[in-house]
Amino acid sequence: MITVAICDDMQMYREQLVQIINGLMVDFITNIKVIPFESGEALLRFQEEHPNSFDAIFLDVYMDGINGIETAIEIRKIDQHIPLIFLTSSPEHALESYRVHALDYILKPYSRQKIWQVIEKIIQQKEQIKQHTLFIKSNQNMYTVNLRRVVYFESSLRTVVAHFNDGTELTFYKKLADLEMEIQTGLFIRTHRSYLVNMLYIQNVVNTDVIMTTQQQIPMSKKHVAEVKRAFSVYILDQI
Length: 240
Description:
By secondary structure, the protein is an alpha/beta fold. The chain has seven helices and 15 strands. The strands form four sheets. It has a five-stranded parallel beta sheet, sandwiched between helices. It is elongated, with a radius of gyration of 22 Å.
């Protein structure tokens, strides 16, 4: 299920968008829960009291009180990644939407096809996030790890250390081979029996070392050299 917020100070447009989204549920495998708000202030209060409640937020640009752009700026202070979709009667705010990294904007009157496209984007983005999420148990605590933040995993026997891009670390118990099987993002490559490296952070491959953008130097065993170079070359070509 995905949960979306609709923030619009005009009841007519709130109800119309809710009706269209509810009607689209038959087109998607997942259920869609819609929570409406009549002001940016009400939405922000809810966000503060119930963080991480939404998979996406639809924001009317023109509202009494705090407008949609101002509401989006406040949301971005606490959540950098949630998809934001602007609702507007004019495309003139399209450039402003980039300032808060909006997913899209929808013109009024609403087009069912456009809303269908946006819902599809939201579902796809949620699936991508799920694919890049790892749940780790460490010292009886459970952690949700964004794999895109992991520079590399380092293993010694059954102990694995996740090295993050901000310099922090997380230690947990697991075989590196099992971890490699569990991660299905296509971003990580085995360079050594003790190292699993995120290609997002590879700067260069030199002889038997992998040089990371974080200045770390990861060893590469002879048996993995050819595969690492091949996988990294494919990854680079995919980015072009």
